[in-house]
Amino acid sequence: MVTLQTVRRDAPWSWLKAGWRDLVRAPMVSIGYGLIFVVTGLAITAGLWSLGMTSWIPVATAGFALVAPAFAIGFYQVSRKLDAGETPRFSHVWLLRPGKITQVALLGVFLIILLLFWVLIAQALYAYFAFGNFRPIGEFSSFALATPRGLTLLAVGTIAGGILAAFAFSISALAFPMLVDQEVDAVTALVASVMAVRAQPFVMLTWAWLIAFWTILGTVAFLLGLAVIFPWLGHASWRAYQDFSPVPSPSRASAAAS
């Protein structure tokens, strides 16, 4: 069992402000870490483009959104160092105790499973609705935006992706920061995250909407905007975790520490 603090209904806006302050206090480390994922995304995009499979770029971008919470642990580490009055260094983003790495990896596997499930759904929908091979983005856009089957594909795909994204958000919103900060197991951290969503759905729905909005905005800017937005949202997620202040029951905490 986990106990949570009640947060204000407008708390997500405070998390964004606090996250921005963390980003400004450690811009080199935060943006440098964020650039790793931007460069990786650009490399994947370039690879799909060279193979003539540009229609899969939106699928890959949506897939990154599913697993991004696992990669944001570096930003949680930076915010944690700032809270301790220390100067964050790039090496800090990788510093996790072996026991914590195991639990982070376990929770990360859940997100990877969701990612693979999303890819399978995208392939199935494409095979069902698309008669032709619309791999270039121009052909796919004409099909998706100008034909009934294409519009149906977009609608069904958006709904399916939204459901998976909501599930990924529910199990990870507080889980990864909690694993970084406390001696708990992945299941306890996952439960804390789900409890926060169930206890204050309006707050967490607002937070999920803000994350989606800024992520889409950064992606539209040829992924380069994510070099700033991803660190910003990562630091803000740490502040969200702190606001909820999840505390596991003594039995679970002692079991995780043993």
From TrEMBL:
Q: Which UniProt keywords apply?
A: Membrane, Transmembrane, Transmembrane helix
Please list which residues make up the signal peptide.
Answer: none
Q: Which domain of life is it from?
A: Bacteria
Q: Which InterPro entries match?
A: DUF2189
Which parts of the chain span the membrane according to its record?
Answer: 31-50, 56-76, 104-131, 151-174, 186-205, 211-233
The keyword Transmembrane helix is annotated on this UniProt entry: yes
Q: What is this protein called?
A: DUF2189 domain-containing protein
